[in-house]
Design a protein that fits this description.
The structure holds two protein chains of two kinds. Chain A is of the alpha/beta class. In chain A, 46% of the residues lie in helices and 13% in strands. The mean pLDDT of chain A is 96. Chain B is built from nine helices and five strands, in the order ααααβαβαβαβαβα. The model of chain B has no long low-confidence stretch (mean pLDDT 91). The chains are: A alpha/beta, B alpha/beta.
């Protein structure tokens, strides 16, 4: 396993008929033409108007001709490359490849009492060091892994989060989008020689705010990819029906893609869904629901199949469970499995626990096993002369023949059989003798080992470390002068 | 010197033919069989350690011991032809009892014991008591290991122990039992000397039984 990700070797699972796909596509075009989308950005309004959109300046509402939408969709590449801090962490997102990304959370959680706690900057560094060393983590979102830090004002969260990652995470990162944080984040990425991609996430229904637009604009201008995200809550900020939320999400995303492709044709797009269902009892998003998976299967089918645009599924990581338990395991496992089966390019899974409220590095280590297992799954079944093993079967023959002492087994089993790192695979007797540890204890022990052994790879120079500190200090001064600190 | 490295490399990279070839080359070049045996023992110890600490797995363990066994046979013949006797930490006869065709658990035990420097006479599966007892006598075995997975065949273990007694060799050999059909109570009941829950247990059991 490496940053190469996992190559899917079979046709992905689909759920929509050709007629369904066309109905949803035409529905989105109809919404864009008749209702339009709100853009909170004068330069975006001007750009879209100059390219044939109808713009209502009083309402910041843009209505799109279908032809322009189709042309811009056709400009999105099927795959794009991003540089990590070294060749080993470069990624090519899209095509038939599956990559994984952490699933952030607001707070951390005490593994004994299950009480939530606001993490410290040190907690953030440690959590970042763990995902840096997990083979199945290939990239990270902004505010990874924590969306809140002790004694850090909100406006400084993203710059500090990026500063922590640029020091201790060697894989491509997303930047933004709040209060122009992408400016500092991009400067930091330049210091360490890493590519970044923009966070352009819709405010549903049908709205794009200035922060998301500015962030996408800055990345697109530099030829960096843009993650265009939809995040409606079905029944709250989107229709309760899956098909309806698909229509609305496509309309939002088409509008953003038109803007990005007009800024820089051919810019890489990562179509992200963090759509959840509404928890109709509490009003919060209901993570882990099967309706979210149904949405995601269709989302993959539409973006990968109809538009040839790589997808990111941001709603697989969190569960509705408050703790690391069976519910968390089955909700994450089912959701991520269906995402992988239906052809996701990136699945956000590592570390997320309760909705998007909690994260723990121990969970990221457990999720490394899930991601590895799914990676093996998408690679499928190789059928060739060697794997058919006719000569070996003939050679071994009936009982008492067996395959455990056969060179064919040594040469093939590690590729064919996935070996989890912390899942319990012990013989019962050994498990009793060694303390009856569950996956949770195994992952805790692994975390301690990983932190004790952590080294930056490749190491950053003193100058690079100082430059990161300097940029962070500049950000602080900037926000102070703006009266935001 | 090259052939010693070749023997070691052959075992560590699971190249059975290379190990045989390097062993023959070593003998032809005038090496003492005992010094080649030492290289094999050292290499198997690396494999055994790798398995115990989780870096290597059953296929590697079993195949490496198979690789070594081929070379050990060649060396054994040479030592015999020189009029000497091969020395071991001990000799263990292993077999799955009559009526039971389960080979894998017993083969794992064999591989682990070989990797730990014991001479292992593996009689295979479906082994009648008479054959077990004959092998114990012929090889002057220190330990007899009996395996049974089926509850229906476990009774054969008792028959084998009874035959050891009636043949007058019960005191000369220790008997260990293992496999899914057995447990420590059953081992006591049939008069075995030890019971192993897992294959890895066999290493410490044989060591203790040999004291």
């Amino acid at each position: 396993m490496s940053a190469e990700g996992f190559t899917r070797n079979f046709e992905p699972l689909t759920i929509l008929s050709e007629r369904d796909i066309e109905s949803i596509h035409q529905g989105a075009l109809e919404i864009l033409k008749e209702t339009g989308v709100r853009f909170e950005s004068d330069r975006a309004l001007a750009l879209l108007k100059a390219n044939g959109c109808s713009v209502d300046e009083d309402l910041n509402r843009v209505r799109f001709p279908a032809k322009l939408v189709e042309e811009c969709l056709a400009q999105c590449p099927g795959a794009f490359k991003m540089k990590g801090r070294s060749e080993k962490t470069d990624v090519v997102i899209g095509g038939d490849t599956l990559h994984f990304c952490p699933s952030p959370g607001m707070r951390t959680i005490d593994l004994d009492t299950w009480q939530q706690r606001v993490p410290t900057i040190e907690d953030n560094h440690n959590a970042v060091k763990i995902i840096d060393k997990l083979d199945t983590v290939h990239l990270a979102a902004s505010y990874t892994p924590y969306c809140q830090l002790e004694d850090v004002p909100g406006v400084m969260l993203l710059p500090i989060s990026a500063w922590s990652r640029m020091k201790y995470f060697s894989k491509p990162c997303r930047v933004g989008a709040s209060q122009g944080s992408h400016v500092w984040e991009m400067m930091m990425a330049d210091v360490v020689g890493m590519d970044v991609f923009a966070a352009m996430e819709a405010a549903p229904p049908l709205t794009w705010y200035g922060d998301a637009i500015d962030c996408a604009w800055a990345c697109a201008e530099r030829g960096l990819p843009v993650e265009v995200g939809c995040g409606a809550v079905m029944g709250g900020t989107g229709p309760a029906t899956i098909a309806g939320t698909l229509v609305q999400s496509l309309a939002e995303m088409f509008a953003a893609i038109v803007m990005v492709q007009l800024i820089n044709p051919g810019t890489g797009i990562l179509a992200n869904s963090f759509v959840f269902a509404q928890n109709m009892k509490t009003g919060s998003p209901a993570a882990g629901g099967i309706e979210v998976s149904l949405f995601q299967i269709a989302f993959n089918q539409l973006w990968r199949g109809r538009y040839n645009v790589p997808t990111m599924l941001g709603a697989c990581g969190p569960s509705s469970s408050e703790i690391i338990d069976v519910q968390l395991g089955f909700e994450k496992g089912i959701s991520a499995s269906l995402a992988a089966a239906s052809g996701a390019s990136v699945i956000n899974i590592h570390g997320g626990i309760h909705v998007e409220l909690t994260y723990h590095p121990v969970q990221s280590i457990i999720d490394n096993d899930i991601a590895g297992l799914l990676g093996r799954y998408v690679e499928g079944i190789a059928v060739n002369e060697n794997t058919l093993a006719l000569d070996v079967i003939k050679d071994v023959g009936p009982i008492p023949g067996h395959y455990l002492n056969n060179i064919h087994t040594i040469k093939t089993w590690k590729k064919e059989h996935f070996q989890p790192a912390v899942s319990d695979r012990m013989a019962y007797q050994d498990w009793i003798r060694e303390g009856q540890n569950s996956i949770l204890e195994n992952a805790k022990n692994k975390m301690d080992d990983m932190l004790a052994q952590y080294q930056q790879d490749p190491p950053l120079s003193d100058k690079q470390m100082d430059d990161l500190d300097r940029i962070l200090a500049e950000a602080k001064t900037f926000y102070k002068n703006k009266g935001l600190l | 010197m090259g052939f010693k490295e070749d023997i070691k490399d052959g075992i560590l990279s699971y190249e059975k033919e290379d190990v045989i070839e390097a062993t023959n080359a070593g003998l032809e070049a005038g090496a003492e069989p005992f010094e080649l045996l030492e290289v094999i023992t050292e290499s198997l110890a690396i494999i055994g350690d790798g398995f115990t600490n989780g870096d290597l797995f059953l296929p590697e363990l079993i195949y490496a011991s198979d690789c070594a066994q081929g070379a050990i046979k060649i060396l054994e013949e040479r030592i015999k032809s020189q009029g000497s006797v091969m020395s071991h930490k001990g000799t263990v006869v292993l077999g799955t009892v009559k009526g039971d065709l389960h080979d894998i658990g017993k083969s794992i035990v064999a591989a682990l014991l070989i990797a730990n420097g014991y001479q292992v006479i593996d009689l295979g599966t479906d082994v009648p008591a008479e054959k077990m007892v004959a092998a114990v006598k012929e090889n002057n075995a220190d330990v007899l290991g009996l395996s049974a997975l089926l509850t229906t065949t476990a009774a054969e273990m008792e028959n084998t122990i009874k035959l050891l007694e009636s043949e007058g060799v019960r005191d000369a050999v220790k008997v260990m039992v293992g496999g899914g059909a057995t447990n420590s109570n059953y081992a006591d009941l049939i008069g075995a000397d030890a019971y192993g829950e897992t294959a890895v247990d066999s290493i410490s059991i044989v060591k203790e039984l040999m004291v």
